[in-house]
Amino acid sequence: MRRRHRLRRLLPTGAILVTAIIVAVVAGDGGHPRLPKAPVLGPGRPGDPFAYRPGRSAEFIARASAGNAHVLFTKSPGGVLATAARVAGFGAAIDRAAAGTGIDPRLLEAIVFLESAGDPEAIAGADPANAAGLTQIVASTGQSLLGMPIDLAASRRLSAQIRAAGAAGQADRVRRLQAARARVDPRFDPGQALAATVRYLEIARDHFGRPDLAVESYHMGIGNLQSVLGAYDGGAPVPYVQLYFDTAPEHHPAAYQLLSSFGDDSWTYYWRVLAAQQIMSLYRGDRPALQRLTMLQTDSDSAAEVLHPPDLTPQFATPASLYDGYSARTIAPFPSDPAALGLAYGPGFAYLGHRLGVPAAVYRGLRPQALALLVELAASVRSMAGGASPLTVTGAVLDRQAQQLLGIDDPPAAAGWSFTIARTYVDEAQRAALQAMLDRLTSLNLIAWQRYPAEIEITVAADAPRVIASGP
Q1: 33/323 Cα distance (integer angstroms)
Q2: DSSP 8-class letter at 11
């Protein structure tokens, strides 16, 4: 599927930029409607508006599964519909493996979706010592913890023969070799792999006393997750939603540092399992909705169009329509006191104004909801980083005429929901603080974002002010 080209260009420097600024300033508002006066906002509200609230854990969970779903749509082999079809083919085997164990078969199914995309021959890399099979069990874990009689030497030998036969186009030989490998390495036998995964989940559930922690540990490991719990509150099991959202660089920092340090996005594994579960539910119950969601998830390099579907989101066509937006207060001007907010405005805004014959301030605005989140983002980054250095905003609302001038297609930006921040930081603390906030806001499903060489584009959900005001 075609993906939209959404790159915001950092605008000219040197003499061209200086000329653009001079022309825009001289032009003023002559011949144009008056823009609203830039407000003075002052610092963001005290406290953390995105902090975990135990009484609303269900909403945190729903937001986290939605906010972390994008990778499933972009990385599933053949797409999520093809992956869901493969996984559904193992439905009876999944139900048999989970029967009588108390393990939710739909969670087990979601693990299959996430781990192997429904491919019982999958190997992480070429060596079957790594994660392998329908549920991607590591050989050492299978042997030592799960009691699987894995003959790793034979599995390696047969895997090499399978690769050679596949390269030679010998499909029948590949199938015979795969059957032989499943006899010496039960990870490649779907029924045995599923049974072993159920055993793991039972062991982890008995250890932690919680099914959510058992699922999370399937990727992170029981020992690693126990270490995070130890850093959080001395080791007592807590709901994973609490462990995840109640840790941050400035709150339970040791637990946050450990939780966020594991590779392969281990700390979002549980949310991605829940997202896979929702995909399978849609596959069975509402396939047209899944097809539409797939289109929105894959039409650009972030989930921005899921937050704001182009066919349902009014966009600004020309600078004149932006003036109307300011007048109707559907677009709000950037505040006049950026330094007090931990912000700075890049010089490039004047470039577009000059090219289109309007003041630079026309493009220095956002939907009020997006602006509210930008202000809180800057306040949070400054608080976490322990300094007053600003984040530099390099782009904001872009009408369709301006986008044509730049050669881009970015519907959320044309609707005033997106802004860009320069990837220039005063120190590592500021960079790490921004990344921490991007992670948190993504898992709250309040933003979608993508990284470019010189800037980061952030698209804001419409309900951001409600979350800021009352918490998720």
Answers
A1: 7
A2: P
Q: How many C-beta neighbours within 10 Å does residue 102 have?
A: 10
**Amino acid at residue number 141:** T
**Distance in angstroms (rounded) separating the CA atoms of residues 119 and 123:** 9
Q: What is the pLDDT of residue 286?
A: 98
pLDDT exceeds 80 at position 468:
no
Residue 28 reports pLDDT greater than 50:
no
φ and ψ at residue 329, rounded to 5 degrees = 65, 25
In this model, does residue 290 exceed pLDDT 50? yes
Query: 130: pLDDT confidence band, cut at 50, 70 and 90?
Result: very high
Give bridge partners of residue 392 from the DSSP assignment: 344
CA pair distance 305, 300, nearest whole angstrom: 8
User: Which segments of 185-340 does DSSP mark as H helices, in order?
Assistant: 190-208, 211-220, 222-233, 240-245, 253-259, 269-285, 287-298, 304-307, 319-328
Distance CA 172, CA 388 (A): 66
Give me the domain span that covers residue 224.
57-272
> What is the structure's pLDDT at 13?
35
The answer to whether residues 242 and 378 belong to one domain is no
Give the model's confidence band at 399: pLDDT under 50 very low, under 70 low, under 90 confident, else very high. very high
pLDDT value for 280: 98
Residue 4 lies in a domain: no
Cβ distance 444 to 467 under 8 Å?
yes
Q: Which two tokens stand for residue 76?
A: 């599933």
Assigned domain for 321 exists? yes
Looking at per-residue pLDDT, the higher value among 98 and 384 belongs to: 98
Amino acid sitting at position 451? R
Residues 258 and 314 occupy one common structural domain: no
As given in the structure block, the two tokens for residue 463 are 């309900």
Give the closest residue to 9 by CA, choosing from 306, 346, 317. Answer: 346
CATH number of the domain where residue 138 is located: 1.10.530.10
* Structure confidence at residue 431 (pLDDT): 94
Q: Is the confidence at residue 293, as pLDDT, over 50?
A: yes
Q: Is 334 found in the same domain as 186?
A: no
Query: Encoding tokens for residue 338?
Result: 């950026």
For residue 192, give every residue at least 6 positions away whose Cβ sits within 8 Å of its Cβ, in sequence order, or none.
148, 186
- Within this chain, do residues 132 and 249 fall inside the same structural domain, yes or no? yes
d(CA 187, CA 194): 9
Q: What are the residues facing 393 on neighbouring strands?
A: 345, 421
By C-alpha distance, which of 280, 286, 224 is closest to 255? Answer: 224
